[in-house]
Amino acid sequence: MKKILLTILKIALFFVGWAVCCTIDIPAQNPAVWRFYAELIPLVSMILFTSVFILIEKGKVRIPIEKHAGTGTLVGIIAGFVWIFLSAGILLSIDQLIITGKNSVSMLWLWIISALINVIMQELLVRGYIYQLLKTKYNMFITVAATTALFTFMHGGAFEAGLLPVLNVITMCLFTTALYEAEGTLLAPIMAHAIWNVAGGVILGGVNLADDYPSLYIMTSSENVILSGGACRIEGSIVVLAINIILMLFFFHRYKKKVSGK
């Protein structure tokens, strides 16, 4: 019981301290600049709190980044492109999603950087200190279940959209966790997640980011909500659920092979 309470206390202090720092606001008239700082402050806070709490653990908790960085980055990039282009490609090819227009986005490069920063922050939150702490204290099931729940509740808008978007968020997290464990570096899920958000959200307009994010293209869904995803577009489609599960099983198999040494 003491171990459980201590673990909960550490996670609570880590999360609440980080969340408080995230309330810092830097005024900026330019929307792209404001969004950049709105993503940068949580990331810097996350890095700071992660560093401090890892020091407190005295080397018992580590976040794998450098080991397998090259291959992990490459696999993450490939997985990310397969993930978004299979999902969007299938839905566009069967006319469940349609590109209906194009926007002129000022400072598109800065919006892309902001989306990348947000992904790094999310991955550090879900698979950084909290994940590694749970992994050292408990088994893999508890670790994955707890961090998947955290990731899902971070995307609370999915609950308002319905069961299918929630299942997509859950299976997305399980897929990227399997990718992380298979490749042994946090860079793998960071790259896959970043490509999904940038290509699917900032470019195609089919992945829901924060409300103020623009998109280069305008994507419209058909009336078939189960296939097209409705208001959630790509992330609400049953096609994505199937792709998430396939990718999850593929990388889980790679992880099992790595563990068994075969």
Summarize the structure.
The chain is 71% helix and 4% strand. It has 11 helices and 2 strands, in the order H-H-H-E-H-H-H-H-H-H-E-H-H. Strands 1-2 form a two-stranded antiparallel ribbon.
- Average pLDDT for all residues: 92
Q: Show unreliable segments.
A: none
Helix-strand pattern: HHHEHHHHHHEHH
Major β-sheet strand ordering: 1-2
Strand content is under 5%
Overall morphology: globular
Please state the structural category. mainly alpha
- Described by its quaternary structure, the protein is single chain
Question: Number of helical runs?
Answer: 11
Number of strands: 2
Helix % is: over 70%
Number of domains: 1
Distance between the termini: 38 Å
* Biggest sheet layout: 2 strands, antiparallel
Could you tell me the radius of gyration in angstroms? 19 Å
Describe the structure.
- This protein has about 260 residues and is mostly helical.
- The chain is about 70% helix and about 5% strand.
- The chain has helices spanning about 1-20, 30-55, 70-95, 110-125, 130-135, 140-155, 155-160, 165-185, 185-205, 225-230, 240-260; strands at about 95-100, 215-220.
- A two-stranded antiparallel ribbon has the order 1-2.
- The termini are far apart.
- The mean pLDDT is about 90.
